[in-house]
Each structure stands twice: as C-alpha cells, then as structure tokens.
Amino acid sequence: MLEPRFAVTAGLLGNEIVRAGPDEAVVVDVDLRSTQNILAVRASLGDPDGGGKRIFLIDDTSHLSRSQAYALGASRVLYGPVDQAALLKVLYGTIPVGPSPASEIASTALDVANALGRMFVEATHGAILDIKDVQEAGSRMAEAISEHGLAEWMDAVRRHHEGTFQHLLLVAGVVVDFGVSLGVRRRTDLERLYTSALLHDIGKAVLPVTVLDKPGPLDTSERGLVQTHSIVGCDLLRDNAQISDEVFDAIRHHHEFLDGSGYPDGISGGSISDLVRVLTMSDIFSALIEHRGYKNSLSREAAYDVLCGMRGKLEHPLLVAFRQVALHR
C-alpha cells in the first residue's frame, strides 16, 4: 500500500528500535489492549518528543485504546480496518513544508492531546490523577492561541483530532479566547479557565464508548448514563490538591442552566458561578461546530444562533460578549 509512494522500512514489534526523523512517519498497527504490547511500543519508539509523526491504526475503538495511543505520542489515530485513502491522506499531511504558524499550533494541540491521553489512561485504570502535564500543556495552548488566534487553533484541532479529544481541545481553546476577550490576563485566572475546560469531561474516560459515540439519538437509559459524567469526573479527581474548588465546581456543573433545567443538581441563577457560565457556553458552542462521523457540524454562525435561541438558560450579557469570539476571532 505504501511502497509505491514512500520509502518504507517495516519492523515487527519488539525486534528493533524504530526512530523517525522530522520528515518521516512511523505507522503503528498494534493491539493496545495488551500491556505487553504497550510496553514494547514504548520501548521501540522512545521519547515522543524525538521528532517525526506517529500514526496509530486501532481496530478497538474503546477510550482506553484511543487514550493509550495518545499517551504513546500518537500524532493521529485511525480507527477500524486500514483504509488506503485515509492512511495516504494522513501520511501526505505529515511531510513538513517548513516552520509555519499552522504547524506550530498543530504541534501544541498534539502536546495537549498526548497529555490528556496519559490522564485518560490513568483514569481508566483507577490511578490517582496527576494533572501537572495537562496544566503545562494548557499553558502552552494559551500562549499559542494568544500568538496565532482562535481560528488557527480550531482549524488545527478539527483537522488532526477526533471524538472526545477534539471536543476537549476545542472547548479549551474557546474558553481561553473567551476569557482573554473578557479581560482575563492573570496567569492564575487563565490556568483556572483552561484547567476546567480540559478536565470537564474526564468522567467520560470510564463510560462505554459505544454510548458516547453512538451513531444516533441516545435512549433514556443511555442519556442518563452520559449525564453521570460530571459527577464521575469529580469522583475521579476527589482529594486532588492540585485542583481548586472553583474548578471542581465547573467540572460538576458545566451542564447547569440559569433556569434550573440542567444537570446534575438542577441549580439556577446566582448559584451558578461565572466560571461555569463561561465554560457552559463554550462547551455547547464547541459541541455544535465539532466534526463527528454521525452528525453534521454547524458553521460558527449557525452555532451562535443556536446559543441565542436558548433564552433563559444562558446569561444574555455574556452571550452578547461571546459573539465576537464565536464569529470573528
């Protein structure tokens, strides 16, 4: 499949060390449900910062396999049987054309995705979550968005990431840019924004991917299961001294609405913090514009119109302020 177009070296897992230069790629076709395979891949590939691209082919679409691929430094993850056109498209996209804002911001998005992947793996195994890597990657993300803009970030994320990781990266980018547009400048305040955005769906790490990525409407029981993710996320992060009370509140309540119609606690009005209000708006907007195989993504204009139609649920002055972010940044 590859040899007519690329210089190819093939190797069996565990037999040799595989390294890729900055203009090369490694394609990994391994069952990541096996701990032995994971250790062998890590030994073969070494440090993910060593250069080159890493494309993982995954038959199993569980969160654990996805997260494990990103934890091993995946640049892209392709699912299901190998599709020649899809693989070639990704490989051609790995050949660099020199430094550019687009390549720099895509690299930063990959760093954030890899940090999230490691944390999702920890969550799946019930380990104590260390969010330091995620926060450090989030700080680099905030700098990249400040330098290159939200539109560049969103384009890179939607071209290179899928599913839950795409959503988290989009929400985090929108939250940071929204916060900056509102005058947030202090490092601790920005950290609170991107930490809550990157962690808000951590509870989905332990939910069945068959439900999360179901190609169609959820039934009542499935919807109820998904709605537990905010509580599960808080449970996973419980007693974590690295997380402030404000961030815990945002993780638990990012699906609450001003009229009390949200979940999990049905709080309303003044009980909903400013951080939650910013995160909720950014979360809904990002979900509407993200690419999913089972639904059409909306344009930024159409997504903003949906938000405007949610009368009584979102804070109107904040929604007015969000217009610039949604449409023009």
Short recap of the structure:
It is built from 15 helices and 3 strands.
What order do the helices and strands follow?
EHEHEHHHHHHHHHHHHH
- What is the share of helical residues? 40-55%
Radius of gyration: 20 Å
Mean pLDDT: 86
* Number of helical elements: 15
Low-confidence stretches: 95-100
- Name the assembly state: single chain
DSSP strand count? 3
What characterizes the major β-sheet? Answer: 3 strands, parallel
Strand order of the largest sheet: 1-2-3
Q: How would you sum up the global shape?
A: globular
Strand % is: under 5%
Distance between the termini: 41 Å
Category from helices, strands and their pairing: mainly alpha
Structure commentary:
By secondary structure, the chain is mainly alpha-helical. It is 55% helix and 5% strand. Helix 1 links the parallel strand 1 and strand 2. The radius of gyration is 20 Å and the shape is globular. The chain starts with 24 loop residues before the first strand and ends with a helix.
Write the layout of secondary structure elements.
Blueprint: E1 25-29, H1 35-45, E2 53-58, H2 63-71, E3 76-79, H3 84-92, H4 101-124, H5 132-148, H6 150-160, H7 163-181, H8 187-199, H9 209-212, H10 220-226, H11 229-237, H12 245-253, H13 274-289, H14 300-308, H15 316-328
Parallel strand pairs: 1-2, 2-3
Helix pairs in contact: 2-4, 4-5, 4-6, 5-6, 5-7, 5-8, 6-7, 7-8, 7-13, 7-15, 8-12, 11-12, 12-13, 13-14, 13-15, 14-15
